[in-house]
Amino acid sequence: MSKISDEEHGFTLLEMLLVLTLVASAGFVLLLKPPIHIERDRLAFMTTQLLEEIRDTRQAALAENDWYQVKFYPQAGDHHYQIFREGTRIKDIHLKDGVQFLGQPENLLFNASGRSVGTTITLTNSLGEHRSVVIAPVGMRIKEK
Asked: 3-state DSSP call for residue 8?
């Protein structure tokens, strides 16, 4: 016959409470932290997307020997921009929730040589943080600031 050992298997109530407390506190911290990071990430994502769209538009104007235009619409509740090829709209890009244009950005017109006016387009989030896309008038360098 087999003999039952006196060893106990399992967890004590104190160990279970400790684990539950640690899990609950980690969950609480995770619930508080992300909203700040989400707002920053949205702003960073939208600024990078704007930068890439402007660069792609300029490259398309050069490659296709056509003119392209980027128009900005900072209307309350629906901040977006549109890309046109020789007057025909080819793309609409809406900014993510909480991200909007700061002021009225100047529309961009790229001619067949890839030239446009220099300008700065600034985006802001609900936390008041700003990020900008700068189009340099000389050399047409497009960068994020």
From this structure: coil
Q: How many helices (H) and strands (E) does the chain have?
A: 2, 8
Distances from the Cα of 143 to the Cαs of 20, 60, 93, in angstroms?
Answer: 48, 18, 19
Query: Largest alpha-carbon pair distance within the chain?
Result: 94
DSSP string, 62-104: HHHT--EEEEEEEETTEEEEEEEETTEEEEEEEPPTT-EESS-
What are φ and ψ of residue 28, in 5° steps? -65, -45
Write down the pTM of the prediction: 0.74
User: What is the tens place of the pLDDT at every residue in 87-143?
Assistant: 999 999 999 999 999 999 989 998 887 777 889 999 999 889 999 999 987 777 889
